[in-house]
Amino acid sequence: MTKDLVSIIIPVFNNVNLLRDSLSSVINQTYDNIEIIIVDDGSKEYKKILLICKQFNKKIKIIRFKHNKGVSSALNKGISISKGKYINWLSHDDLFFPTKIEEQVKSLKGSTNKISATNFIIWDYEKNLYTNSKQKKKDFVNFKDKILIRDIYNFCTFLIPKVLFSKNLFNEELKYVQDYDMMLKLSNKANFYFLNKNLFISRKHSQQGSINQKIEWDAEKNRFYVSHVTSYIQLLKNKKSIVDIFFTLIFIHLKKLNDLNQILEKRVNNQKIIYINYTVKLLFKILNFFKII
After folding, report:
1. pLDDT tens digits for 232-272?
2. Which CATH number describes the domain made up of 6-211?
3. Which residue ranges make up each domain of the chain?
4. Which of 6, 38, 57, 142 has the fewest other C-beta atoms within 10 Å?
5. CA 120 to chain centroid
């Protein structure tokens, strides 16, 4: 029986030296029917990418952009030329565990309307510290709502049927939150199957956009959440438990989504929500005063 082809798309821009490890983690998968697509997003290190790829006895497709277009454009290009039944985005500084693709393909059982997700490890590359993501099955139930109030997911853990990207590509206007934007879109198209295993390593380092371009990243994140303010209002109204409302608002304040909170204060007329939000704001003022956060 022929195995389903899986396309791994690896966008590359800066920190090309980290590509070797990531590429090795794909080539050493226990699942052998894999197509590897590298998209050089105007990195100015094309020759180095070629040299790294030549070190492996494996056919690798390399697409080159003359100028930097952003991760979304690189992913869309990779998806457009891919031949696999399933797609997996791999950031060029992250790593797969050897059995990741094999276990996820098995979990989907040929389905084209389910997405396989896994737990993962966060590796602080410069401090050499490891922490577990500790996601749970319940984090993927009512997934659309969970995305709005949790910041715990890593898109690169997802194995996704290519058909779900039909007329549904990454937003090329987004530079930092294109993954969460796509998660929301995919949540309307498919259910998630969660494998409670660490099958992926997210490598954290000082050259990541969320760190060295934090001001721009925070600004785009705020605009993204504000664009979904209607969903937040509906989400808060649907929650009957004071505890659930409290922790939803905790997320908004903890992530410093001030623009979103101001809009919610103007548009939500439910007294219970208003009082809970006031309590949360007071709590954060106290925590900030004592420099706890």
Report:
1. 999 999 998 999 999 999 999 999 999 999 999 999 999 99
2. 3.90.550.10
3. 6-211, 228-289
4. 57
5. 12
